[in-house]
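step=encode ok
step=design start
structure_in=
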């Protein structure tokens, strides 16, 4: 096996298929993957390479491949549906990213059409346009965007998304480095105004795991994705509290597998095996790795792996 980022298979890749077949699944659904315009992805990778202030430590990109090869790798893993998480860091960027993401989804049928937004004039209008155009999932990055998600300028955006029932993957936890508006309190203010919002809390809300579990228990449409949580890389800096595993199991119908592919500093198999070592049972794993995503996005034979809780 080659080293991470050299264009060859990453160590452990052959175990991905063994994992989901061993659970009797038809494949995987990955709610948190990144496909972006080439120049944007290059800037993101350069930021990770430099261990920028929102990263804070050495971070090798395991799957630093060209777009076509990244798609082939995901499909080779048996990923049946995935996303193209794009996110702006300044005004005027979201519309352009949305246009790219719509084109990408049109030529990539197994990608769930993804869109994003920023607190700016016209945001509610273009979000409604994306919904009308077929966007199936949205991305909000509070850390990178450095905005308050409860900003009054976003109220109509959240309202439109809540009305449509569109899932929104939101990075609002304070990992890997805190931002001005990260943590549970700002997004809790959003949910207080829009309790039907179908939020997917990225990275399990790392490192404020317990607080975001509280929000999921309080609001029945709040989900959490497993992106990078429980892995050796994250456990060293922000370990998931063992005492919270019971709550994590009880919320098994609203936990979704996410990987952060390709921007992970370890092999894809490790993200799955880290879930297995939680010892929450095969039913939980089947729901998290496939059934919950299939139900949320209306794709696949979800009835075969529905969460019984």
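sequence_out=
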């Amino acid at each position: 096996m080659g080293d991470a980022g050299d264009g060859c298979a990453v160590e452990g890749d052959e175990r991905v298929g063994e994992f989901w077949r061993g659970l009797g699944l038809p494949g995987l659904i990955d709610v948190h993957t990144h496909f972006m315009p080439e120049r944007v992805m290059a800037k993101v990778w350069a930021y990770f390479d430099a261990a920028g202030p929102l990263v804070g430590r050495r971070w090798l990109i395991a799957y630093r491949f060209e777009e076509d090869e990244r798609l082939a790798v995901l499909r080779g893993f048996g990923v049946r549906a995935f996303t193209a998480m794009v996110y702006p860091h300044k005004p005027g960027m979201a519309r352009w990213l949305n246009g790219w993401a719509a084109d990408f989804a049109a030529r990539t049928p197994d990608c769930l059409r993804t869109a994003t937004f920023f607190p700016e004039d016209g945001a509610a209008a273009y979000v409604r346009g994306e919904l009308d155009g077929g966007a199936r999932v949205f991305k909000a990055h509070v850390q990178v965007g450095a905005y308050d998600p409860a900003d009054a300028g976003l109220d109509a955006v959240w309202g439109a998304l809540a009305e449509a029932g569109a899932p929104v993957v939101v990075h609002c936890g304070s990992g890997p480095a805190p931002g001005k508006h990260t943590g549970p309190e700002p997004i809790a203010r959003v949910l207080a105004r829009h309790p039907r919002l179908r939020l997917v809390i990225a990275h399990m809300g790392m490192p404020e795991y317990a607080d975001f579990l509280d929000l999921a228990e309080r609001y029945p449409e709040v989900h959490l994705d497993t992106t990078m949580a429980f892995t050796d890389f994250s456990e060293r800096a922000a370990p998931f509290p063992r005492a919270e595993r019971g709550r994590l199991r009880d919320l098994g119908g609203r936990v979704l597998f996410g990987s952060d592919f390709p921007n992970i500093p370890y092999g894809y198999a490790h993200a799955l095996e880290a879930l297995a070592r939680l010892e929450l049972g095969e039913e939980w794993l089947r729901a998290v790795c496939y059934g919950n995503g299939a139900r949320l996005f209306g794709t696949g034979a979800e009835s075969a792996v529905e969460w019984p809780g």
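step=design ok
step=annotate ok -> The beta strands are 28-30, 79-82, 114-116, 137-141, 168-171, 199-201, 223-225, 255-256.
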